[in-house]
Design brief:
The structure holds two protein chains of two kinds. By secondary structure, chain A is an all-alpha fold. Helix content of chain A is 81%, strand content 0%. In chain A, helix 2 crosses helix 3, helix 3 packs antiparallel against helix 4 and helix 4 runs antiparallel to helix 5. Chain B has one domain. Chain B is globular, with a radius of gyration of 24 Å. Classes of the chains: A mainly alpha, B mainly alpha.
Chain lengths: 186, 259
């Protein structure tokens, strides 16, 4: 047995044991899925701050500050506003996570959700998160590429459409089952 | 045979018998048939091992193949018990189960293949490499199961969770045990056996604790809600996501001139 294999295998096994305990703790401490799905209680709450964030990110606003207060003041404002925007971005992410949580609960309660749809949703959330971090990094560096953000938005829309499709199919089947039950009762 | 080894084996056998006896008396075997089958198989292996090692000693070339063959049967029985735990946790959620069964099986096979491939240099002790691979596959499946449950916010019944945790941890212990044994061959068979028996006794204690209740409390079966509930839910989800999408799009359109 090579030393490298031995070290990797030992580290891998210890990690696996840790993962087992961590994942079980998370799973056994959860409550059962509530059919009322109270996850809807916290709808997006950050929309009301949109105007202020737009204002904070407006380059002309900063140009005006530089012209009136000098480059030192402009740099300070830029720094502070970037912090605010980062906080806002984090809040948007929380909203996205909340929506995904709803999707997961719906999937758990639905025996009709297919594996491919679940995989697609998982993939979507992974891509969303990875792009989110890229955008966050760009924001830290003071350079945000608009297409990246638009891609994030597209992902949100895609998720919504996917859920709508699933729910429509569930609704059709449930309605058909109810109709058949009624016919058998007659 | 050393006294300490006998004591450990005796303790393990006693705990196994206790678990099996309780399972029959309290009909727990109906809930975990494969798990109790694994315990029974393991008990048989202990009996075979005891007879062989007492008669021929640890270094016997006659005992070696027989013991490792029985070990193979035990590992297969444990894999079945692990599959049973997976089904107990996710089986009620048909949509998720369809995905999980494929992913977990694939992960198990992948880990098994990788372990065999990267451990190929040690094929001279091939049976150990094979055991490491099988155990890695089992532990990966159990870890994957718990991750699925965590992701979908599915509550794992405490008894089932602890049975699964025991199976996973036992596999991890066995991998470490085999790795150390193979790496440092100077360690004699007796020391190796101490570690193996000691970890097994620990896991048996976890299982005894997990199955202390006569009948495990059942979680309510998930039921698909009516079409009306879903019809009410989905517009809310869509509105929420649409608002979020709009928010993101607007946020990054600030560079464009204001109308």
């Amino acid at each position: 047995m090579s030393a490298a294999f031995f070290v990797i295998a030992v580290i891998g096994t210890l990690s696996l044991a840790g993962l087992l305990i961590w994942a079980l703790r998370g799973a056994s401490h959860r409550k059962t899925n509530d059919p009322r799905i109270n996850v809807f209680e916290s709808a997006p709450r950050h929309l009301r701050n949109m105007a202020q964030i737009r204002q904070a990110m407006d380059s002309r606003d900063l140009q005006y500050a530089e012209a009136k207060g000098g480059p030192h003041l402009s740099a300070r404002i830029r720094r502070e506003r970037r912090q605010v925007t980062l906080l806002y971005l984090a809040a948007i992410r929380r909203d996205f996570e909340q929506s995904l949580r709803v999707a997961r609960v719906v999937a758990a309660l639905s025996p009709e959700v297919s594996g491919s749809q679940e995989y697609e949703r998982l993939r979507l959330s992974v891509v969303f998160r990875s792009r989110f971090y890229v955008i966050k990094l760009c924001l830290h560096l003071g350079n945000v590429a608009q297409p990246q953000i638009l891609a994030l938005g597209q992902m949100s829309t895609s998720l919504a459409m996917q859920m709508e499709e699933t729910m429509a199919r569930l609704g059709e089947r449930a309605a058909l089952a109810a109709e058949l039950a009624l016919q058998s009762d007659r | 045979m050393p006294l300490f080894t006998l004591v450990l084996w005796g303790l393990a056998t006693l705990l196994t018998l206790l678990l099996l006896g309780r399972s029959i008396a309290l009909s727990q075997y109906r809930e975990f048939p494969c798990f109790f089958l694994y315990l029974a198989v393991n008990l048989c292996q202990t009996a075979v091992g005891l007879v062989l090692y007492q008669g021929y000693g640890f270094g016997s070339s006659f005992a070696y193949p027989i013991i490792w063959t029985t070990q193979g049967i035990v590992v297969v029985a444990r894999a079945l018990a692990a599959a049973e735990v997976c089904h107990q946790v996710l089986g009620s959620y048909k949509g998720i189960w369809a995905l999980a069964a494929r992913v977990l099986a694939l992960s198990g096979v992948l880990v098994l293949s990788l372990s065999l491939y990267f451990g190929r240099r040690s094929y001279h002790v091939g049976i150990i490499t094979l055991e490491i691979s099988l155990e890695a596959g089992i532990a990966t499946c159990i870890a994957g199961l718990f991750l699925f449950a965590r992701y979908y916010q599915i509550r794992v019944q405490p008894a089932t969770g602890l049975v699964g945790l025991g199976l996973g941890l036992l596999s991890c212990f066995k991998i470490l045990n085999d790795l150390v044994f193979e790496r440092f061959l100077k360690i004699n068979g007796v020391s190796w056996n101490y570690a193996s028996s000691f970890s097994f006794v620990g896991i048996l204690l976890i299982w005894t604790w997990a199955l202390r209740q006569p009948v495990a409390a059942r979680l309510t079966e998930p039921k698909l809600k009516s079409a009306l509930v879903y019809a009410n839910l989905i517009p809310q989800v869509n509105r929420q996501l649409a608002e979020l999408n709009e928010q993101l799009t607007q946020l990054w359109h600030v560079e464009s001139p204001k109308s």
